[in-house]
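Blinded run. Sample ID left blank on purpose so nobody reads anything into the name before looking at the predicted structure. Input follows.
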Amino acid sequence: MAKSFGYEIVKGFGVPVSDLFQAMLDGNILKQLWGLNDFRILSEDPRKAYAEMVVGEENWSFELAYDSIIKDEYLSWRVRFDRAPHKEIVVCIKFSGTSDSGSMTVQQSNFDSQEESDANEIAWRSSLEKLEEILIR
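Blinded prediction complete.
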């Protein structure tokens, strides 16, 4: 069996856990965080979404399939990129904290290399910084 690579990020926010949770389900916020051209829930299966993302000439569009949604506690999903449909990236987010201050623990796994994992970790850290800016406005 091939080795899988991944990472974990823990970040605190000065906003309620419920705000963090809702932000991670809000297509408009996800578009801003991830630099998407479009994000839409698929009408044939509301637990799936399609994200369009083109960077330069490269297609990074993907399908996102929610595995678990536990209000204000936990989200998990799998990502399949159009350019690599045979592979699934797994994302798990745990939410914790109080009605005043929440935190997120983001785990992402199933990368083929440490370099791929590191690049995605950098992107997620940037996205969490953007999320903080959006939520404190």
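Unblinding after everyone has recorded impressions. Residues 15 and 101 are 5 Å apart (CA to CA).
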